[in-house]
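Hello again, I could really use a second opinion on something today. I owe you a coffee for this, so here goes:
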Amino acid sequence: MYDRPHTVDALFTDLYQLTMAQAYFESGQSGDATFSMFFRNFPQSRSYYVFCGLETALEYLENLSFGEREAAALERLGIFSPAFLDCLTNIRFTGDVRAMREGEVFFPAEPVLEVSGPIIECQLAETFLLNCVNLESMLMTKAARTVGAAQGKSVVDFAARRTHGTDAAMKFARAAYIAGFSGTSNVSAAVALDIPAVGTMAHSFITSFDSEVEAFRAYARSFPDSTTLLVDTYDTLTGVRVAIDLAREMVESGHSMRAIRLDSGDIGRLAQRARQMLDDAGLSEVRIMASGGLDEYAIDRLVRDGAPIDGFGVGTRVGTSADAPYTDFVYKLVEYDGKPVGKLSEDKATLPGRKQVFRTFDERGIMIRDSVQMEELPADLPDDLPLLGAVMESGARISLTPSIDYVREFHAERIAALPDWLSAVNPAENYPVVISEQLNKLASDVAERARPAES
């Protein structure tokens, strides 16, 4: 496995994180804090999200530091005091992190991550943590929905050319593989993550030859036992006939064609015609792949209509989460210096204090409901599963990084526990999340203490 060098850009933060840090420093506000990361609301098109980005977050926190270069850059801004910049060069993250496991499904109001430690350290981390968890959870959720819509048929990642930058392409490839994709066309991701690399050919390959059959034969000579032919460059059904003739030639020479790929037109109708033609030619082993603007909605329709498609290549719409391209993650202070705190703003109030999320299952292992309550309290039911666990103490990880295949298997177990109605592409109901009485009481107490001070 190829390991890339890991670097952390400490200056990747919003300016106000640094101005607040200086004000904390100069006013002596140096107590320990806890920040909680959670969703306020899901987009209308989402019934669940999948937590991803924990590994990126922990790597950042382990390596966060400000050196002389960063201090000099901040000095040039002309707004920070020499004493604060000197303090900044000694900062490392020394706190604790509790989090859900990567691959876990979660819902609004549930903290996926809680960061505790000196307030300046926790404050400076906000921008990066939100960025990585927002992006990776958004992409993994889209990928998980796509895998679910495919109902066991293979799905592969063709998204690298359309994602929002190379970093997003790498993160999508990882998230998609955890979600259940068979592989990625992104060679860098395949090598770095040790996951299958997949790919066929582009229309440019075919149009560079004098004829479609010449292009097909050239490709088959190079890849005699892994040939997948793109058949829609000129006329799709004619392309299928040319592929059938070549497939017969390959069988006579002791090889076999793997698949044909449909990339345009009425994919469902063309797949039906192509399947019939292949079967009539005695080539039932040749698979049909589909690509071209597909997402979970299009795949769901094709599968429900019985289109004889064996696998899907997805790119733009899935790799950018086109129908829900941002999330409502927030990172809010919930405890300072041992006291629970909360925000009272209309429509943006927060629940104070450290929390735990408990999940209840039925006798078949299917999720029934979640409850959010104060961290120190036991579950309402003895068999409820706590979802937040310690992953970092005093700035160091508690355990080794799990393999990508381990996370993939865990995620598959969690998706299998979703109720059928919740895993649908367009569910009609919301999953129940209950806020405990004790937590609601704590929120009321914090609000009562805050309001007289305001008045």
Observations:
- The radius of gyration is 26 Å.
- Residues 61 and 93 are 6 Å apart (CA to CA).
- The first strand starts at residue 32 and ends at 39.
